[in-house]
Amino acid sequence: MEVSNVQGHMAIGMFPSFPGLVRGEITKLMRHPLTWVAGLLSLCGLVGVNLLILLTDIGNDARSPLKDPVGFWTNQFEGLMFVRVCGGLFLIMITAYLIGMEYHFGTIRVVLGRGVGKLQLLFAKLTALLIMALGMLVISVLVYALGSVVNALILAGNLNSLSALKGENWKFASYFLSSALISHVVTIIMAAAMAVLGRSLAFGMTAALCWFAVDNMATIMLYLVASFTHNDIFLKIQTYLLGPDLNALVSAWAGQEHVRLAMFTPIVNGSYSSTQFLLVIAGYTVALLAIAVFFMARRDVKE
User: Where are the membrane-spanning stretches (predicted)?
Assistant: First the structure.
C-alpha cells in the first residue's frame, strides 16, 4: 500500500507543469546562438536608424533641436516604427526555430512521450515567445531612446529640447509603441502557424519571412491593377491585407496630417479608421491561431 502511494506521488510530481514548460522553452531560446545573433542584429538596426537620422539632421537648421525642438523629437519618434520592423524580424526567426526545431530534430515525439499535451506544448511555446517579445520591446525602446538622446546631445549639446514636448507629443510616441506591441503578437502567431502548418524549421522560417514581403508588395500591385482597370475594388482589397494594415495603424490613430505615411500602406480613396484596421488584424490573429491549434491538435506525430 505504501509503495502504491509513493508511486502515485512520484507520478504527480513528474507530471509536467505549464510554468515549467514555459521556463524550459525560454531556456531553449536563451541558450541558442540564433536568439543572440538575431537580437543583436535587431538592435544594430535601431542604432543604424538613429545614425541615419543624425546624418540627415546635421547641417539642417530646420531640424535642429535648438530651433525646432518639437520637430526634432517628432522626427525621432517616427523612427520608432523600426522598433516594430526590427523586432518583427527577430520574432519571426526565433518563433520559427522554437516550433520548427521540434519537428526538424524529432524531439516533439520525446516531449509528447513524457506526458505533455500537444496544445499544452504549443501554448507554452507561445507564452515563452510573448515574454521574449515583451523583453525585446523594452530593450529595443531603451536602445532607441538612448540613441535619440545621443543625437540631441550631439546637435544641441544639452537635453533642454525635451522640455518643449507636451502630452500630445508623448501620446504620438505611444502610438508607435502600441503598434509595435500589436505587431509583435500577430507576428508570433503568424510564424507559429507557418511552422506548425509546414512541420518544418525551413518551411516555417521561409514562409513567415515571405508573408509580410508579399503582403506589402501586394499594395503596389493592386494599386497598378486599379489604375489600369479604373476599378476601386482593388484598392479596397488592400485594406484587408495584414502587413499594410499594421503599417497604417499609427497614421490612423494620429491622423495622416501629423505623421509621414509608412511605406506599403493601403492606398485608398477616403479615410479608414483605426477600428477597421484593428478588426482586420484581429481577424487574421484569430484565424492564424486557429490554424496553429487545429493542425497541432489533429495531426499525428510522424515516426
Answer: 34-59, 79-100, 121-154, 174-197, 209-226, 277-297
